[in-house]
Every structure is written in structure tokens, then in C-alpha cells.
Write a sequence for this structure.
């Protein structure tokens, strides 16, 4: 699991992109500009993250995340 740090965004002034972009260590420019859609990553487990678009299943997500920050 990714441990988020920082403050939760204001519910009155929600961010344009991903709600977690300001606290996610893997956030990219796209995360701050575009809200991700929910994707079924297997066994009815849904994830809203741009970084899982190229992952084949949830088990490979950690590999994709590590490669995206190199």
C-alpha cells in the first residue's frame, strides 16, 4: 500500500485532477490535470489511477509504480 502524507484537499475547493495527487509520491503532471476513471483491475477490485492503465492486473501495479519513478 502507498502511505499518503500531507493534508486532505478541501471538499469545498476540490482539485481538478486526481484527489490524491497532492499527497501521492507517484503523482505526475497528468495526475494534477486530469481526474482518473475507475478501472476494474481484477476480482471486482476497482482503482482510479492513471498509473494502472498499462498494468495487466493489480499484482503488477507495484512494478508499474516503481518503473514510473525511475
Amino acid at each position: 500500500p502507498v502511505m499518503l502524507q500531507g493534508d486532505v484537499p478541501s471538499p469545498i475547493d476540490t482539485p481538478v485532477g486526481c484527489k490524491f495527487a497532492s499527497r501521492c509520491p507517484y503523482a505526475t503532471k497528468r495526475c494534477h490535470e486530469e481526474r482518473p476513471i475507475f478501472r476494474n483491475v481484477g476480482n471486482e477490485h476497482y482503482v482510479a489511477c492513471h498509473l494502472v492503465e498499462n498494468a495487466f492486473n493489480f499484482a503488477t501495479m507495484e512494478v508499474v509504480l516503481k518503473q514510473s519513478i525511475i
User: Anything to note?
Assistant: The first helix runs from residue 29 to 33. The mean pLDDT is 77. Strands lie at 38-40, 46-48.
